[in-house]
Amino acid sequence: MTNRKVQEASKTPFEHQSSMSITGEMIENKPAQTVCIVQFYTKVAPKLLFSVKDNNAAKQGRFIIGVDWFDTKLAPLYTAIRNDDPFADQLLVDIEISIDELGDAYKAKQEEIRELIANRLTSTGTRIEFPADGYNNECRVSFNNRLAYSFLWLTKELDNYMYYLYLADKYNVIERAQYNELWREAKRSFRYTLGKINGWKATSITRVDLAQGTARVPVAFNLNEKISLSQEVLLLEERAGTAPPISSWKNNILPNDVLNRLKETYC
Asked: What ranges in the chain are assigned the alpha helix state H?
């Protein structure tokens, strides 16, 4: 009798309430999306971020692409990459390389112009006094895809270059004709790189199709003629930094039978 009382007394409060069910409610709050606030020295560079319709009658309402347009084009490309489209995979690699190369080109051009200005100032014993806040405008930017932000950083490189170009023109360090040509080329190269995404066409092609030589193969090569498929991308030895994983291959590794057939046919 005594022993039984001791056992009952030793029960914890949780053991006495074991028949009770614990319920609760989780309320999910979707936070507001973060926004990048970017300051620019020039009016030209930020205009490349946003698409516009040119209402100039001579241009008949021509659509001018921006980074926001490019951002919307990435969703179907990523879907194709997940579904093992090698042409989509290749295009993403090409665009990333083009962004890096164009950024380097802008930096090199900026340094050339900066040196021209510095030499003129040194030779004349002159200096330029820059205002504490020399920014021309400020933009609030938010994109859905990582690669679009690479173009945002490229826009900043372009802005720095264009600012020095503006100074070189303002202080008559370079000829106006040279300024106009460099200005046009800088914008043209940026939009050309954006427009590369139009070179890819959806065909539902996969690496298995290429290995087996299905009817989709000639169609895919024909419609994607602007994309040069490299051996490294085809065999998954090279991929873009922003590329999503391929659904059909674990760890993005091709099975030996597909890999060997691709090597025999295309390498």
From this structure: 2-9, 13-16, 44-47, 67-82, 86-124, 146-170, 176-195, 207-212, 216-223, 231-234, 256-266
